[in-house]
Amino acid sequence: MNILAWTVLGLLSGAIAKSIYPGSQGGGILSTIILGIIGAFVGGSLYSLISTGSIQLAATSLSIPGLAIAVLGSMLAIYLWGLIVRNA
Fold this sequence. Notes:
Blueprint: H1 3-20, H2 29-52, H3 64-87
Helix pairs in contact: 1-2, 1-3, 2-3
């Protein structure tokens, strides 16, 4: 998947994850895109671990199931980012 598709997937999944995740996360559009792209990689890697049994650094595809996995990964990334920011 190319950079433009990752950016679109990151924007979509980050925005959906921020709207679903409880509480206020702060940050603007750039942080939403970055956390969304990280979430797409986290979700894709966890999906490949569950489905194949081996961990691979892979992003999800630009599809409805891929978006759902990226949203779950973005929610995990938002949670982890909240833990890091609170402890700093």
